[in-house]
Design goal:
about 70 residues; alpha/beta; 2 helices
């Protein structure tokens, strides 16, 4: 499992995060550092489009728990 930033301005975007998923061989990824400012355009939906089908994109909201 990896926690990867996808905001695309101050951090990597979904495209780079998808590459990182492939390089480190994760099967689950939690996107972070996105959607807090208008200029942060990366989205979990875009990341989901870019990763292979066997990679689970886990979109957590504040306060969510993933077990």
């Amino acid at each position: 499992m990896a926690f990867l930033p996808i905001g695309d301005v101050y951090t990597m975007g979904p495209e780079q995060a998808a590459i990182a998923c492939a390089l480190i061989g994760v099967k689950e990824v939690v996107p972070m550092h996105y959607g807090t400012f208008p200029e942060l355009t990366g989205t979990p939906a875009r990341l989901r489009e870019l990763v292979p089908p066997d990679v689970n994109v886990i979109e957590l909201k504040p306060g969510d728990v993933y077990l």
